[in-house]
Design a protein that fits this description.
This protein is an alpha/beta fold. It is built from 8 helices and 10 strands. Helix 2 runs parallel beside helix 6 and helix 3 packs across helix 8.
């Protein structure tokens, strides 16, 4: 098989277990926790490292932001032998009992992305593999992390569909979406991010495994009211010190899966 066009990886370059952050800058941070790590390729938003974590073969590839670029990464990684995908990212929450810094482990996703609908109809569920969920829970408990398991909302946009102040360029559709986040809270949706639904749909449709976790950076409702100042820069800056904990959760999840798969 020829080298993959976007990721610039080939068969043998990636492990069966792959961590998927969005930010290319987080790949080296994750790989720094491994016993062995080598840089495989960098192209566009895609950075790939492969190595060993406590005896478990492991890779990490950044996906960029959103479902379309993530779909490209999953397609090309699967063609090179990856079989288990674990999303590691950041998210907001709609739930009052979830605190900043908590880990959100996703067992399912609301499919508000567009890319997954190119693969499966809207009735097709976006659900994580049970063994991956169990491994992530075991890893969080081993590490003593506060965590929650539940549904995430994966959307294609960062600003649109927010109640006021919403998008920078006007209040288009605000009368329609003004209760959107409150509705998600009523539906007990745990997370708000942009990639998990696509990852879950593709893995399930192809007979592969997927799961995901994110560190919670804020309560989305608290930054979207009439008088709120929506400052995404502040959102991500105050969570920077949590990324290594998130990386450790991802690595330990892979270790749990590898040990389980061996037996």
């Amino acid at each position: 098989m020829p080298i993959q066009y976007h990721l610039q990886v080939d068969t043998g370059d990636v492990a069966p277990y792959v961590l998927l952050p969005g930010d290319p800058g987080r790949v080296a941070t994750i790989a720094s926790l491994w016993d062995e790590a080598r840089h495989v390729a960098t192209n566009r938003e895609y950075v790939t490292y492969t190595g060993i974590y406590q005896g478990a073969p492991i890779s990490c590839t950044s996906t960029g932001i959103g479902a379309p670029s993530t779909a490209i990464a999953i397609e090309e990684l699967a063609r090179c032998g990856a079989t288990t995908f674990f999303r590691v990212g950041t998210c907001g929450t709609f739930l009052d009992h979830v605190a900043n810094g908590d880990m959100a482990i996703f067992d399912s996703a609301v499919r508000l992305d567009g890319a997954s609908h190119g693969y499966a109809p809207p009735e097709y569920p976006a659900v994580a593999d049970y063994s991956v969920i169990a491994a992530s829970v075991a890893a969080a408990e081993k590490l003593g992390m506060r965590y929650h398991v539940g549904t995430t909302r994966s959307a294609d946009t960062f600003y649109a569909r927010h109640p006021r102040p919403g998008s920078s360029f006007g209040d288009f559709w605000q009368s329609w979406w003004k209760d959107h986040f409150e509705d998600l809270k009523r539906l007990n949706v745990l997370g708000a991010e942009m990639e998990a639904s696509l990852i879950f749909v593709l893995a399930r449709a192809w007979g592969l495994r997927a799961g995901g976790a994110a560190v919670v950076l804020d309560n989305v409702l608290s930054v979207s009211g009439e008088s709120a100042e929506f400052d995404p820069e502040e959102q991500f800056t105050h969570g920077a010190d949590l990324i290594e904990r998130l990386a450790l959760l991802g690595c330990e999840t892979v270790l749990q899966l590898h040990q389980s798969d061996k037996t």
